[in-house]
Fold this protein.
Amino acid sequence: MAEIETAFEDEAFGITDRLISDVMQAVVARDGEAVSALLDPLHPADVAHLLEQIDARDRRHLLVVWPGGLEGEVLSELSESLREEVIEQLAPSELAEAVRDLESDDVVDLVEYLDDAQQEAVLGALNATDRLVVEQALSYPEESAGRHMQSELVRAPEHWTVGEAIDYLRSDVVLPDQFYHIILVDPRLKATGYVTLGRILSHPRATPLRDLAEDTFRTFHVTQDVEEVAQAINHYHMITAPVVDDDDRVVGVITIDDAMMFLEEEAEEDLLRLAGVGEGSLSDRVIETTRQRFPWLAVNLITAIMASFVISLFEETIAGLVALAVLMPIVASMGGNAGTQSLTVAVRALATRDLTTANVWRVIKKEALVGLINGLIFAVVMGAVGVVWFGSPMLGVVIAVAMVINLVVAGFAGTVIPVVLEKIGVDPALASGAFVTTVTDIVGFFAFLGLAAAWLL
Amino acid sequence: MAEIETAFEDEAFGITDRLISDVMQAVVARDGEAVSALLDPLHPADVAHLLEQIDARDRRHLLVVWPGGLEGEVLSELSESLREEVIEQLAPSELAEAVRDLESDDVVDLVEYLDDAQQEAVLGALNATDRLVVEQALSYPEESAGRHMQSELVRAPEHWTVGEAIDYLRSDVVLPDQFYHIILVDPRLKATGYVTLGRILSHPRATPLRDLAEDTFRTFHVTQDVEEVAQAINHYHMITAPVVDDDDRVVGVITIDDAMMFLEEEAEEDLLRLAGVGEGSLSDRVIETTRQRFPWLAVNLITAIMASFVISLFEETIAGLVALAVLMPIVASMGGNAGTQSLTVAVRALATRDLTTANVWRVIKKEALVGLINGLIFAVVMGAVGVVWFGSPMLGVVIAVAMVINLVVAGFAGTVIPVVLEKIGVDPALASGAFVTTVTDIVGFFAFLGLAAAWLL
């Protein structure tokens, strides 16, 4: 009988700080039985989570003290940066046992980024049929539906009845662990529709399956981007997305739980790219993290030097009125922030397909207008600050006008730049930030110092 | 028979620019039949998408020309900012017809943020039973599992067999549109486990349901945060999450497709909050968008003024060497970017529960160390720039040392600030940016100008 677990109240699902410290105590005492007693009842996702929370040395000790404890599912749940490390530590026999029970798509996820020797070790542990399925999937492009589909699925001839389907399912056929639809196929194995299990269960045996088929049926090609499939699953509230080959034969399915994972990864990727962090994960080592952060900082340095060059054009102006040096970062900073606001909304809307050629001009005009209105408000505020702080009404006017210019430019550039990048095939999440900040820095310093040179000196 | 649709290749799922312009032409020609012919075959999610792409005036005309066309599901798919506008335009009878076929959780989603008059209009269109269910859900706190659960579900006594379950499902009982599990209950209606439909279909009629129950069974309380439930669904790969009341009786379920929506919303919220955009959506009006952007820009203005104040402390230093004004934004900008990198990783890791008390110190040390290494590299680069550009080795040393200090501080503050905000109950996505930038601006200007004052003049 299944055991009831109450809702988790801890910070990290089934894992508490207490549990971690108990496990580590048992590891230090080299008490394998105690470790098993603590870890065996956990869901594989929780074991993976625990392994991610402790440091590399503790992980190594834990795996030594807990021999044979690691199930294949824990490996699939582990973050990519830890998989290689953990797999390296497993004896070939342990690895073989761990991967044997995984579904084909989980094996593919597990091995696709391993080095050749490790990949071969995992594939070698599979039986010939499973290995063939995995190698077939690996032959499709990275990020394609074919690469990530689950090949275990349930098909039925479209002329079958409910009774025939039930008899088939009750026979000794091998079924996927989880399935929610039966896919109908014609005599040439072409997919023609699908039926939910709920409808099959609630209709008499004589009912033809085709009468129970869902109204809409969408299939996806093996080479289609798996993220697009995941977006369609989300958009159309599908549970299973059938994947077909060139002859329209169903060769696999993308399930909603995998789609959820792909969308999570996509959202995380966009977030991290916008912040210039690339593919980073918390469990990466120092040197890896340093390397991931470096390129964006380097790009930012070039940007910052370009901005400094603009300032250097006005050295004499600044020498004549040092107050300009005090106030100039304000204009650039406000522009940078307004630009980031616009570009984040644009990048997100491009990802969710809400920003399209149909509405792009309306959005650009709107963003520029929002920049104008906020610019006018802050112009008044900063004008007053200029007067009060430095007692110069004209300095107030200069900073106010520069502010308006920069906030309008920020709204415009913050939308146009991501849209153009997307059009020319560059990921807008990755590159927009640097371009937009360059524009707002340069425009900000140029407008403020240029106006000051013209009107104040 | 279901119709096959090929994989979408357009930018926005089923919606192409061509379709939008065809629809708008038919609207201009006031040709209701042509509009119906174009829109009726579309999935409700696609109709909603189309309504979001066109502007408010076109939307108004479209709804006038396409009377009675709008299904309830289109309303649930619409972004929140458009719902009020569209509902206002529907005649009471149209609204009644639209909402009558929705599942209870969709009605709740639809009405929860409507004003009282509109809410009453929708509730009034429901029959007494449905209305009771919706009002019950609305009595649970916002964002709770009880508020968002689907109350339609399938329960069975735990002592039933497969045959009894099938006979029950085939009787004239009302079933949910979609269901994937049967939830087992004891005589007091307490939930004790659940069985997937796939296992029921693949076992003989005599098999007891309890023998087919899933190994793990988790329930969630009606008052639990629905985002937590969604995270658990994702973490544990569940399809259905049973929601129970104080007596452990199942009163509803959160399904994986809704969980997917909640996680998407959460990820979007974090992304937009990090960029200081609040709850913005592309279809908000100018004035709303201006209002959403304003607070963050105002906070940034205060931050920028504080940074300017630090600069003003060194007016004499700058007057003595204008090159300082040229170079100082570089140090602040690099610190700001490094800080944003660290804080984005930290905010994301807090959201996914990867950053916990168990590893927080390790992460803080790592981030500071990453800052130190990158700081040293950029210090060498900037030192060289200082020497080459301004011919002053000492200026090079000043900017190099300031760079190292600011990047270490950025790594430290970028992690500590979000963690502390989370601990004291403030959303780290919302507030971290302002704090971290303040720290890196002030430290950057202070270190650079302070060292310059001490060593150069």
Q: What stands out?
A: Chain A touches chain B through 142 residues (CB under 8 Å). Chain A has three domains: 17-140, 155-274, 286-455. The two ends of chain A are 86 Å apart (CA to CA). Chain A is about 65% helix and 5% strand.
